[in-house]
From TrEMBL:
SUPFAM superfamilies: DNase I-like (SSF56219). It comes from the Eukaryota. InterPro entries: Endo/exonu/phosph_ase_sf. Transmembrane segments: none annotated. This is Exo_endo_phos domain-containing protein. It comes from Cephalotus follicularis. PANTHER family: BNAC02G09200D PROTEIN (PTHR33710), OS06G0205337 PROTEIN (PTHR33710:SF79).
Length: 246
């Protein structure tokens, strides 16, 4: 809990790509303003529209969609929260004159309290637990080769003993695969973040855009393994739709 039993309300939003379809979201935000005035309220997510001309890398035009968004923000008496890191949160992944970057994701709030910071503790590692097959291993390009290689080995003894020996040898080989895909995702995201900072700073090689595209693909693949890993460990019913459950 927070010190002093402070209550904070948090809403997560996703704005549809169509301007008219976002009208419902703006109406809901302004409606919730009166409901959530009792406590500090923060709204965060992908609004799929910019607020200011400076939030578009190649255009300063203020569109009707932007005006509608700003009117909703004004009516709800919201303010952008201070943020760090990359300014633009979306890119069309093109190079040259066709490259476009925008700030589509943001966090806004309304509060008469001091800012609240939440620190998550690192999960304690458990030792000595029994072997557990991780489903995402089956997606590894070496998985079938390792299984076939171990299953082809000859072992002496009755059939059940032979199977036991094969499984035991296979278990040791599978343990050589990555056991924590989330650590791989962290490393890949850090490399992508650094490259994006270099791109935004303008000091990059001609192949930097292609490197970013390839890194995005690697991050997406690693994120799928990460999601499968945590989904297998979770005892709750995960959402079937939406963004990755990270």
């Amino acid at each position: 809990g927070l010190p002093g039993n402070v209550t904070v309300q948090c809403s997560f939003v996703y704005g549809l790509c169509d301007r008219n379809a976002r009208q419902t979201l703006w109406c809901e935000l302004t409606h919730c303003t009166d409901l959530f005035r009792q406590y500090p309220w923060v709204i965060m997510g992908d609004f799929n529209v910019t607020r200011l001309g400076t939030e578009h890398s190649s255009s300063r035009l203020i569109t009707k969609a932007m005006n509608e968004f700003n009117q909703a923000v004004l009516t709800a008496e919201l303010e952008d929260l201070k943020s760090t890191g990359l300014f633009f949160t979306w890119s069309n992944m093109r190079s040259g004159a066709g490259s476009i970057s925008k700030k589509l994701d943001r966090a806004m709030g309304i509060s008469d309290h001091s800012p609240v910071t939440i620190h998550m503790r690192n999960r304690q590692e458990y030792r000595g637990r029994p072997f557990k097959f991780l489903n995402f291993w089956a997606e590894n390009e070496m998985f079938m080769h390792v299984v076939s290689q171990e299953w082809a080995k000859a072992h002496a003894g009755p059939p059940l003993v032979v199977i036991h020996k094969k499984l035991k040898c296979l278990k040791a080989r599978l343990k050589e695969f990555c056991r924590r895909p989330d650590s791989k995702v962290v490393e890949l995201r850090a490399r992508l973040h650094q490259l994006q900072q270099d791109l935004q700073g303008g000091v990059v090689s001609p192949s930097a855009t292609e490197q970013e595209r390839q890194l995005r693909i690697e991050v997406a693949c690693a994120a799928r393994d990460e999601e499968a890993f945590f989904k297998q460990r979770s005892r709750v019913q995960w959402l079937k739709e939406g963004d990755s459950n990270t």
